[in-house]
Amino acid sequence: MTHPPKSSAAPPQVGSALPTVPPQPGSPARPGPPPAPRRTAFAEGVERVRAAATTEPGRLRIIGAVLALLVVAFGAVTAWQTSERAAAADDVLHRSQPLSAGAAGIYRSLADANTAASSGFLAGGQETADSRDRYEKDIRAAAAGLVTAAANAEPGSPSEATVAKLNQLLPEYKGLIERARTYNRQGYPVGGAYLRYANEKMQNEMLPAAEDLYTTENQRLDADYGDATPYPWAAIALGVLALAALGWAQHRTYRRTNRVLNHGLVAATAATGVVLLWLVVGHTVARSGLDGSYDHGIRSLKALHDARIASLKARGNENLSLVARGAETVTVGGQTYDAYYYNFDKDMTVLGRGLTEADRLADDQAGTKPVKAAEGNMAVWKKRHTSARTEDENGNYQQALDMVIGGKGATGECFDSVDSNLARAIDHEQTEFQQAAGDGLDAMTGLTVGAAVLAVLGAAGAVAGIGRRLSEYR
Amino acid sequence: MYAARARASLRGWGGVGAMAVLCALALAFVLLLPRTQESPTGGHTAGPGVAEATQARAADCKDSEAQKQTLSPSGADGPTIDAIKSRTGAKRKLVVGVDQNSYHWGYRNPNTEGAELEGFDIDLVHRIAEDILGDPDAVQFKAIPTSQRIPAIQDGRVDMVVRTMTINCQRLGEVAFSAPYFKTGQQVLAPKSSAITGYDDTLAHKKICTASGSTAYLKLKADRGKGTLPASTDISTTVPNQLDCLVRLQLGEVDAVVTDGALAASQAAQDPTVELKGKAFTTEYYGVAMKKDATDLVRRVNRILVGYRANGWQASYDRWLSATLGKDSGPSKPPAPEYLRTS
Fold first, then answer.
1. Residue A154: predicted pLDDT
2. Domain annotation covers residue A8
3. Which residue ranges does the record assign to the Solute-binding protein family 3/N-terminal domain (chain B) (predicted)?
4. Does B243 lie in the same domain as B295?
5. Which of A34, B6, B103, B332 is most buried, by the most CB atoms less than 10 A from its CB?
6. What is the mean pLDDT of chain A?
7. Percentage of the residues of chain A whose pLDDT score is greater than 90
C-alpha cells in the first residue's frame, strides 16, 4: 500500500525541485534516460495472474487460492456472527433478564415496604412483629437489588442515574418512617404527618424512578433478544457460495481428467457442508429456544410482574383510604369519589386484566394453577373489600379497619394470598424461561470454534486437492 | 325579587316615585361597592335586588364582628335535621368533618384501644350527636384537609365541620357558622434557638409554613402586600394540614410556622425544642360550620352551645387543653354570644 503513493509522488517532487536547485558543476550528467514509470505491486500482481491464467497449472493455482479463501472466509464470518449471537443470547439469560427481574423486584419491595408501613400505622402504636419484619425485609431486598442494578449499569447511562437517585431516596424515606414510628409510639399525631410525607416521597419520586428502571431494563432485554435471534444471512450466503465453488471445481476436474473424486476437494466440500448445516440447524434450534423463552417466559413474566405491582398498589390504596379517612377526593365526570378508593378500583381492574393475560399465556398446569388461585383470591378480596367499604361509608371505622388489617377474614389475607400465588407463578415462569433460553444457548455451543476449525480443515483440503492435480504437471 | 316586591308595594306611588327609589338604591349600591373588596364585581350584572342584599351584608361585616353573624338558638326541627334523623340503620349518623392531626383537638391516639379520634373538637361533636340523634356515638367522622372544609360542606359530603375553623366574613359568604365556641389568635412558632422574636421584622428572609386555605396564609399574604410583613419573607410553603408544617420545620425546610395559637401550642407540645414566639397578633373565634341554608341546624347547634358553655366546655378544656394552653381558660373562653343574623 505504501508503494503507489511513493512512486507517483516522487516524479513531481523532482520536477518541481529542479528549477530552484542551481545546476551543480561537479555533478555528472543525468543518470541515463528518464526511467519508465514504475508499476504498482497490484498492477504487477494482475499482470502475473493474467500471465499465469494462460497455462493450466497457473489456472489451478488461482482456483486453489480462491477456494481456500472462500472456505476460510465462510468459517470466519460464521464464527464472528455466531459468537455475536451467542453473546447476546448469553446476555439475555445471564444479564438483561435477571436485571429486568431485579428491577421488578426493587419496585415490588419498595411498594410493599410502603404498604407494610401504612399497615403498621393503622394498627396503632403496637405495631405487630409481622408488619415490622415485612417492612425491614422489603427495605433490605430493595437495597440489595439496587446494589446489583448499580453494578450492572453502564457508566453514564440513564439506569445509573436512576439507581443513584433511588439510592439517595431510600435512606431519606427510611428516616421519615423511623420518625413516624417514634412519634406514633409517643402518641403524637405528628407521626401520622411523617407517614404521609414518607408516602408522598414514595409515591411521587421513588416508585416512578423504580418504574423507569424496570422499563429501561426491559428495553435492554428486548434489544438483546433482537441481537440474538436474526438469521446469520452473511455466513449462510458465503457458505452456499463456497459450496457452489467447490462443486464447480470438482466438475471442472472431472471434465478435464475424467476422475470422479478428488479427495482433498471432497474433504473440503464435506467440511463446508457440515459447517453450513450446523450453522442453519443450530441457529434454528437456538432461535426457537429463544423465541420460546420470550413467548412463554418473558411475556408471562411481564404480565405477572404487572399484576403483582397492581395488587401492591391496590393494597396500598386500600390502607391509605383508612389512613386518610376521606381527606382526599377526586372528581370524575362530575362525581366525587374518595381518591384512594377510586384508585383501588382502578388497580383491581389492572390486576384482573394482568391475571387474565397471565392465564392465557401460561402453557402448562404448573403455570396455570397459581394464576387461577390468585384469580380466586382476588374475587374474595373484592367481596371483602366491598363490605369493608360499606362499613367505612356507614361510619363504622373500627369495623372497617378490622376487615382490612385484622386477622382472619380480612382483606389483608386475600392480598397476601394473591401475592404468594403470583410469587409462585413468577418462580415457575422464571424456571421455564431459563430452561428455554438455556436450551437455545446450548444449541449455539461449539458452533464458533467448530466453524473455525472445520473451515481451516476445509481450506487445507481444497489446497491439498488442487496440489494433487498440480503435482501432475511436474 | 326584592325589586319586584318593591315595585309591587310601590305601585300606588306611581312610576315616578318607584323610579326615584330604585335610583336611590342603585346609588347606595354603587357607593357601597368599593368598600367590599372581596365581592366580585360580576355581582353587578345580577338581579339588582339580590345583589343589593349580599352586598349590604358583606359591607356590614367586619372580621372582628363576624362571630356575631349567626342565628338565634332554637330547638325546633327543620328540613335539615329531619333529613339527618330520617337516615336508617347503620347510616343513622351525623356526618362531621374533623381533623385527625390536631393534637388534643381532633386526633387519633395510636395508643388507645381502637385508636379512636379524640380531643376538644371531638367532645363537642359527640355532644351535638347526642342532642340531635340521642346517641353521642352516632357520628361518622370524615377527616378533611384545611382547604377542603368549605367544599365538603357545600357539596353535602358532611353535615357540619367542627375543625378549629375560624369565623370570618369571607367564609360567611360561603357557609353558615354557629356562635363561637373558642377564642384564639394567630401566633408564630419557631425553634427555641431561632432569632425570630414574633410577628415582626425578625421574619425577614425567613421561610414561613402555613396550611393552604387557612386564615394564617390569607393574613400573611395581605400583610406582606401592605408591608406590615417584610417583603423578603418567603410564604410559598403551604401544606394540606397545619401539622405538616411541624414536619417541615423539624426537617429544616422552613424557619417558622404561623397558625392559630391553640394549634401552635399543640405543635409545641409534641416537640420540646420549639416554642411560641411573641403574642397572638389577631383575635379569632372558632365556630361550627354548616351549609348556608341549613337554618334549622344552625339554630339547633347554637342552642346546644348555650348548654355546652355552661356545662361541658370547662371539663373538656381541662381534659385536653389546660396542659398546653394553661390552667386559666379565661383567654380562650368565647364571648357571650350575639345573634345578629336574621335570615
1. 85
2. no
3. 93-324
4. no
5. B103
6. 86
7. 53
Alpha-carbon gap, residue B133 to B82, rounded angstroms: 10
Contacting residues of B for A196, CB less than 8 Å apart = 244
Q: Measured between alpha carbons, how far is A115 from A109 in angstroms, rounded to an integer?
A: 10
Query: What are the cell numbers at B40?
Result: 366580585
Gap between the Cα atoms of A270 and A248, Å rounded? 14
Above 90 in pLDDT, residue B35? no
Answer yes or no: are the C-beta atoms of B177 and B312 closer than 8 Å.
no
Q: Do residue B289 and residue B179 come from a single domain?
A: yes
In terms of DSSP H, where are the helices of A153-206?
Answer: 158-186, 190-201
Of the residues B60, B89, B107, the one at which a domain ends: B60
Domain enclosing residue A367, as ranges? 63-466
Q: How many CA atoms lie within 13 A of A280 on its CB side?
A: 10
Label residue A332 by pLDDT band (50, 70, 90): confident
State the residue range of the domain holding B50: 2-60
Rounded to whole angstroms, the Cα distance separating B104 from A432 reads 58
Residues of B with CB under 8 A from a CB of A: 89-91, 93, 95, 100-103, 107-112, 114-116, 139-145, 148, 155, 157, 240-241, 243-244, 246-247, 250, 267, 270-271
Which one of B110, B139, B145 has the shortest CB-CB distance to A124?
Answer: B110
Residue B90 has a pLDDT of 82
Q: Is residue B190 part of a domain?
A: yes
Cα gap B232→A122, rounded to integer Å: 41
CA atoms within 13 A on the CB side of A161: 5
> What pLDDT is attached to residue B41?
41
- Per-residue pLDDT band for A378 (boundaries 50, 70, 90) equals very high
B221 Cβ contact partners less than 8 Å away, ≥ 6 residues apart: B235
B340 within domain boundaries? no
pLDDT at A333: 81
Number of domains making up chain A: 1
Give the N- to C-terminal CA distance of chain B in Å, as an integer: 15
- Residue A313 in any domain: the answer is yes
DSSP at A161: H
Place B57 in a pLDDT band, splitting at 50, 70 and 90.
low
Q: What is the pLDDT of residues A407-452, one digit of tens each?
A: 788 999 999 999 999 999 999 999 999 999 999 889 888 888 999 9
Nearest CA to A313 out of A148, A108, A149 is that of A108
Calpha distance A175→A181 (Å, rounded): 10
- For B234, what's the count of Cα atoms within 13 Å in the CB-facing half-sphere? 9
Q: Which residues pair with B319 in a beta bridge?
A: none
Residue A29 domain-assigned?
no
In a domain, A31, yes or no: no
Dump pLDDT digits (tens) for A82-136: 999 999 999 998 889 999 999 999 999 999 999 888 887 777 666 778 888 989 9
**CB-CB under 8 Å, B142 with A326:** yes
State in Å, rounded, how far the first CA of chain A is from the last one.
Answer: 34
Nearest to B325 by CA among B258, B268, B257: B268
- What band does B109 get if pLDDT is binned at 50, 70 and 90? confident
* Helix/strand/coil for B186: strand
Q: Rounded to an integer, what distance in angstroms lies between the CA atom of residue A319 and that of residue A412?
A: 10
Examine residue B71 and state whether it is found in any structural domain, yes or no.
no
**Grid cell locating B6:** 318593591
Residues 367-426 of A with CB under 8 A from B: 391, 394-398, 401
Position with higher pLDDT, A102 vs B342 = A102
Question: ipTM higher than 0.95?
Answer: no
Query: For residues A463 and A94, what is the distance between their CA atoms, to the nearest angstrom?
Result: 42
